[in-house]
Structures are given as structure tokens and as C-alpha cells.
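User: Hello! My lab partner asked me to get a predicted holo structure for this protein. The small molecule is zinc ion, SMILES included with the sequence. Please write out the C-alpha cells.
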Amino acid sequence: MSNTVQSGRPVAAHPMETDEQARARLSVDCAFPAVAAFLADEQARERVDGMTPQLPADEPKTWTFTNAVTGEPVTLTCMAGCTVDHTADMETPTHPEDINCYTDGTEMTLPLLGGLSRGHGPEDLTVLGFRMEVDPFSTTVARRLPHLNIEFVEENWIEGLDPDALATVIGQLSGQLTRLRVAHSQLTAVRAEYRRRSA
Ligand SMILES: [Zn+2]
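Assistant: Hello! Below are the C-alpha cells for the protein in complex with zinc ion.
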């Protein structure tokens, strides 16, 4: 928890900034451009929903590494769309459990204030980042199939989602977006009423 706002005296990240300017910078207003981008992404997602799933055009790579436990060569084929450079895996004996294939989704950031921003005012942190991954030799059998990992807030992940679990999370996020839209209209009304009383 940051105490910069609760104490009534925001910490100025910029030396020449007045308290009033710092308060304005920390206010919800500064998050509006990011919220607009977030809603635009949601519309894009709705357009994508009706599309037939397609594999990447490039054929997945097939390559060989030396199993560090057995000393034996092991040949495997990457997950479709894998963007990992496996050169290091190929060049040195590798523990099979250390091998993974993944591809990262498009990043989205929001200015967050709180423990994660370490008390220096809002900080643009990745929210709802995601990575499609497969850990072909994982001791957790479910991870041996491609799954989605959500970086819910930077450094805070929900891992190992299969298609059903992912559908549940998408439903929760969609519901949360609806709550955000309601909150947006409420905010407009609350601010107007607040301004009238303060005038
Ligand atoms: Zn790979």
C-alpha cells in the first residue's frame, strides 16, 4: 500500500512539481488515455472472436539437444509459433524440464499506483500480458500441452490455463470490463455532482 495519497501530501516525482500538480498527476484523470486504449482493444477482441483459429504460416522447428541426465540425444519439434531461440538448449547438455517453447501476446500497460509502483507515483506496468507456452518435459502433465499463462499484473501470473479455464477467465474479465463501463458513467455523474457542491 502506498501512503502517498492517503497522507494528503503526494510525493512529487518531478522536483519542480507543486503538490497540486502532483495530486492532479496522481488522479484518475491520468489513467483515461490508457482506459480508452483498453476499450479499443476490447472491440478488437470482439471482432477476432468469430474467426477460425489459424496456425502460424511457418513450420515449427525440429531440433536436438543432449539430455543432461542421461547423456542421450533427444529430438523434439517446437510448438507452432514458438519464438524461443533454442541455440543454448542445443549447444549445452540441458535438463529436459528446463526446455520450454512459448510466444508472447501483445503487451498492454496501465499506470498503476501501489505496492508494485514502489511509492514513486503511477508507473506503467504490464496488465493482462499473456504467453502461450508448452513445457514438453514438465513433471506437471497438463503443462506438456500448449497452455496460456496470464501475467495478470506485472510479476503476478495465473499459470497453466487449459482452454476451459481460459474461457472462465475471459468471462471474468469481460464481466469486469462491464463493471468498468458502469463505473465510468457513475464517475462522470459523481464528479459533476461533486463539482456542483464544491462551487
Ligand atoms: Zn520452441
